[in-house]
Write a structure and sequence with these properties.
alpha+beta; Butyryl-Coa Dehydrogenase, subunit A, domain 1; Butyryl-CoA Dehydrogenase, subunit A, domain 2; Butyryl-CoA Dehydrogenase, subunit A, domain 3; 3 domains; 4-stranded mixed sheet; globular
Length: 385
């Protein structure tokens, strides 16, 4: 379909596709097998100005928005979702600063991120707080010179590799979620260490680690927004970032569809390519329909985010849920079309199926996000009455 991209967006999309095909495809299986963080690819992305996409021009970026980021993430995900999420997590980690940071904070951190010199990460999840973001236990106690950070964050994408972390912690436990605050913490700060690197079902080239804070002193000037706004910062962040997960899912599914079509045209059974079998044709047709429908929803949602609409919670939840459920189905169907070969690591679709599963889980499980959509439906009904 024609999505009427401007020239800069077409250039970014084509460049991301070239990086995916020329640099990622040859190494994705090895990176997945060895569970290595893709530092060489991150350097390629930096050299190609991909980290400038989501940074404003005044901080040495290209001034792109959610839609531009989705275009890049989708193309990278066609080749490897793990590399795509390692890239996208930098935007996740830096968006609170973009939205709520001071001018001094932006000048200090954003040019380095734009140049790809420093990666970023966002730290919310804890052993007792996943989809329920209000259940965090990590504390930030005000002391002379700043805040003393204590606690543990779990399953943090880019953990250990990133240099800059946006950490959500309680500055006032008595206020619950309204006592949460967002703080910038740099790697190497005394009292800040990392746990083991998690071994995962999919996105294995992406680094997922525990963050450990033991009397970690964070300067007062590293607060994002102000005390007590951490939960608002987080919810606004996810409204803006969930289309990126949708784009990851779309790219994954597109890559799986392409592999399945190519295989079906080449694999001969009963004297003919299996593409000639109507059962296979219908599977591929349904896969293509589902991919295009998800892409349209993700793109429309991303553009709505960029429009500055006051509330995009419902649209973002819909895009993430629909696209990730689609990716799980399409990648599973791709494995089925390849048959026994699809189950083997020699072909990429088994990796794609493993990678697709996480898109239904992170940044809000699809079950919880359906609650978000349902809540918005009820609010809309109440406004009409």
């Amino acid at each position: 379909m024609e999505y009427f991209l401007n020239e800069q967006q077409k250039t970014m999309q084509n460049l991301a596709r070239r990086i995916a095909e020329e640099r990622i495809l040859p190494v994705r299986a090895e990176l997945d097998e060895r569970e290595d963080f893709p530092w060489e690819i991150m350097k390629d992305l930096a050299d190609s100005d991909m980290f400038r996409v989501f940074i404003p021009e005044e901080y040495e970026g290209l001034g792109g928005g959610c839609f531009d980021l989705c275009l890049v993430v989708e193309e990278l995900s066609r080749a490897c979702a793990a590399i795509a999420v390692s890239y996208a997590a930098v935007d996740l980690g830096i968006t609170p600063l973009l939205q709520y940071g001071t001018e001094e904070q932006k000048q200090k951190y954003l040019p380095d991120v734009a140049a790809g010199k420093r990666l970023a990460a966002f730290a919310l999840t804890e052993p007792t707080a996943g989809s329920d973001a209000s259940a965090i236990k990590t504390t930030a106690e005000r002391v002379n010179g700043g805040y003393l950070l204590n606690g543990t964050k779990q399953f943090i994408t880019n953990g250990g590799e990133a240099e800059i972390y946006t950490v959500i912690a309680l500055t006032d436990k008595a206020r619950g979620a309204r006592g949460a605050t967002a703080l910038l913490v740099e790697k190497g700060t005394p009292g800040f260490s990392f746990g083991k690197k998690e071994k995962k079902l999919g996105i294995r080239a992406s680094a997922t680690r525990e963050l450990i804070f033991r009397n970690c002193l964070v300067p007062e000037e590293n607060i994002i927004a102000k005390e007590g706004m951490g939960f608002i910062v987080t919810m606004k962040l996810f409204d803006m970032s969930r289309p990126g997960i949708g784009a990851q899912a779309v790219g994954l599914a597109q890559g799986a569809l392409e592999v399945a079509v190519n295989y079906a045209c080449q694999r001969v059974q009963f004297g003919h390519p299996i593409y000639s079998l109507q059962a296979v044709q219908h599977m591929l047709a349904d896969m293509a329909i589902q991919v295009e429908a998800a892409r349209a929803l993700v793109y429309a949602t991303a553009r709505t985010v960029d429009s500055g609409a006051r509330s995009v919670s419902e649209e973002s939840a819909m895009a993430k849920v629909f696209a990730s459920d689609m990716a799980m189905k399409v990648t599973t169907d791709a494995v089925q079309i390849l048959g026994g070969a699809g189950y083997m690591r020699d072909y990429p679709v088994e990796k794609m199926m493993r990678d697709a599963k996480i898109t239904q889980i992170y940044e809000g499980t699809n079950q919880v996000l359906r609650n978000v959509v349902a809540l918005e439906l009820r609010k809309r009904r109440a406004r009409r009455e």
